[in-house]
Amino acid sequence: MKATEVPEIAGAYLFEPTPYADERGFFCRTFDADVVRSVGLDPHAFVQDSLSRSVRGVLRGLHLRSGAGEAKLVRCSYGRIFDVVVDLRPDSPTYLGRAFFELSGETQTTLYIPAGCAHGFQALTETADTSYRIDRPHDPAEDVTIAFDDPELAIGWPLPVTSMSRRDREAPSLAEVLKHMER
Fold first, then answer.
1. Short-list 86, 5, 84, 67, CA closest to 40
2. In which family does this protein belong, per the annotation (predicted)?
3. 2-182, superfamily in CATH?
4. 8-29 pLDDT, tens digit each
């Protein structure tokens, strides 16, 4: 497994496993504490694992947490997703930077997203399972959502949106969220 920095988002990393494939399929390590530690992250900091299943065209996000934020490892364990990260840390050298990825069950690549970054994705396949490893227990009172179609972000989602939560559909603009976060 190798770790690669994401230049558009300071402190973000891609963890790419080396699958062993044969006639049975493949086997690969999806988490390696030593590799995580080698880029300065504490592998024991992650306290919660979650999984979402989405159908083609479903859009989830853009989400982040207020307060101390939330760092997470995200991996598409089955299918394919278009994944988006937006850096909303005012002191970051990549503030307002955006990065786009295609994560898939074929590669099992994991994306580390630092606390203070917004995250969202769209399912590209009929079924897409997305795994999350999060560094704090979830507190719904800290949930923040940004409009997925905010013109300031100009994210080119690859498919028409087939479904999203009410919260995501009614999310405020980036400018509104940033104004509220400054308080």
1. 5
2. Belongs to the dTDP-4-dehydrorhamnose 3,5-epimerase family.
3. Jelly Rolls (2.60.120.10)
4. 999 999 999 998 889 999 899 9
